[in-house]
Design a protein that fits this description.
By secondary structure, the protein is mainly β. The chain has 2 domains: 103 residues, Immunoglobulin-like (Sandwich), CATH 2.60.40; 99 residues, Immunoglobulin-like (Sandwich), CATH 2.60.40. Helices cover 11% and strands 56% of the residues. The strands form 4 sheets. The protein has a 5-stranded mixed sheet, with no helix packed on it. A 4-stranded antiparallel sheet has the order 3-2-5-6, with no helix packed on it. The protein is flat.
């Protein structure tokens, strides 16, 4: 291998290193006190394929997200950002949301039926719900949110440690929360006798349960832990 060729390779590697350094420095220069977080979830059952999220014109994940899939908290600079959600066979949704520093916004993509004058479904419109946060409280809490078609969804939470049962009619796109214990919690969430999921809680805070429908119209649920309390918005 010639000396000229080796020198050219060395110059190229130095140029790449010098070019990458400002990018890394720019990322490190972000002030942590001005960073907020966004968690994305998809409960879109109509349409074909996966659901895609865009933030300020950039794709969040090119492969998209399956039904019931969610992300962790993604750091973003505080201020207004434009969020777009897309899925084949559905009309896209666009929403501008302010991200507050030190807070976590949960954004949930779901679908609303587009009806004709006779009440027949002629299409689907995507929506992007924002779940805000409240000030934390003590103890173990569960927040129930329904993205199902019913105006009110009957749910039951059985806490095994205390053998306490909570029955609730959860309005669509609204949050209902209950304290479920003061110590370690083992809770079963069910709908009309069918178990949707089991919560195993060891850390004090808020356990969010979102109920939605799959492609067959069957009820499913996903959950996540949040140290603060959720308000549907």
């Amino acid at each position: 291998m010639s000396e000229c060729f080796m020198n050219a390779i060395c110059r190229w590697m130095c140029a790449v290193a010098l070019g990458a350094a400002p990018m890394a420095a720019a990322q490190d220069e972000r002030d942590p006190s001005k960073i907020g977080f966004v968690r994305f979830m998809s409960v879109v059952s109509p349409g074909e394929g996966n659901t895609f999220f865009e933030v300020d014109g950039k794709s969040l994940w090119k492969k998209g997200y399956k039904l019931g899939q969610r992300t962790g908290g993604i750091g973003m600079e505080q201020g207004a950002h434009e969020f777009v959600v897309k899925k084949t066979g559905c009309n896209p949704a666009k929403r501008k949301i302010d991200i507050a520093a030190g807070q976590t916004q949960t954004l949930v993509a779901y679908a609303e039926a587009d009806l004709d004058d006779l009440g027949e479904i002629i299409g689907w419109n995507l929506r992007l719900a924002r779940l805000g946060q409240n000030t934390p409280e003590s103890g173990f809490w569960v927040t129930l949110i329904s993205f199902c078609r019913e105006k009110e969804l009957p749910l039951e939470v059985f806490e095994g440690m205390s053998e306490k049962t909570i029955k609730a009619a959860v309005p669509r796109l609204k949050a209902k929360r209950f304290q479920i214990g003061s110590g370690e919690v083992r809770a079963i969430v069910s709908h009309k006798g069918e178990r949707l999921l089991t919560l195993k809680a060891q850390d004090r805070g808020n356990y969010v349960v979102m109920v939605f429908e799959n492609e067959k119209g069957e009820k499913e649920a996903l959950s996540f832990f949040d140290p603060k309390f959720i308000i549907a918005n």
